UniProtKB/TrEMBL annotation:
Keywords: Electron transport, Membrane, Mitochondrion, NAD, Respiratory chain, Translocase, Transmembrane, Transmembrane helix, Transport, Ubiquinone
Transmembrane segments: 6-25, 56-78, 84-104
Function: Core subunit of the mitochondrial membrane respiratory chain NADH dehydrogenase (Complex I) which catalyzes electron transfer from NADH through the respiratory chain, using ubiquinone as an electron acceptor. Essential for the catalytic activity of complex I.
Name assigned to this protein: NADH-ubiquinone oxidoreductase chain 3
GO CC, one annotated term: mitochondrial membrane
Entry similarity comment: Belongs to the complex I subunit 3 family.
Keyword check for Membrane: yes
């Protein structure tokens, strides 16, 4: 028990030491570009000339959802019937969302 406490304390001291060393040795540049928010390549200072199209965000969201669906589909190969049922429920839910996006015209790629 004493060895476990010693290892835990050593780990915490080492972690704190690395954190402090990193903070002391880091470069603290407070220029305008360093402290400004990064907005995906758009200039965040000044007047916005072009607005960001929501279609990019919708396509990214669909990619993430279908990527997670594929991961669950691969997991079903080595699982039981309960996982299969939950996968089918999630698949029906995702197909319903996809149908709604198609119905409301959000899948049209027009910028």
């Amino acid at each position: 028990m004493l060895v476990l406490i010693m290892v835990l304390l050593f780990t915490l001291v080492l972690l704190l030491a690395f954190y402090v060393i990193n903070f002391v040795l880091s470069i603290k540049d407070m220029g305008k570009n360093k402290i400004s928010a990064f907005e995906c390549g758009f200039v965040s200072v000044g007047k916005i000339q072009n607005s960001f199209s929501i279609h990019f965000f919708i396509m990214m969201l669909m990619f993430v959802i279908f990527d997670l669906e594929i991961v669950m589909f691969l997991g079903i190969l080595v699982s039981d019937i309960g996982s299969y049922i939950s996968f089918l429920m999630m698949f029906i839910f995702i197909l319903g969302g996809f149908y709604m996006e198609w119905w409301y015209g959000k899948l049209v790629w027009v910028i």
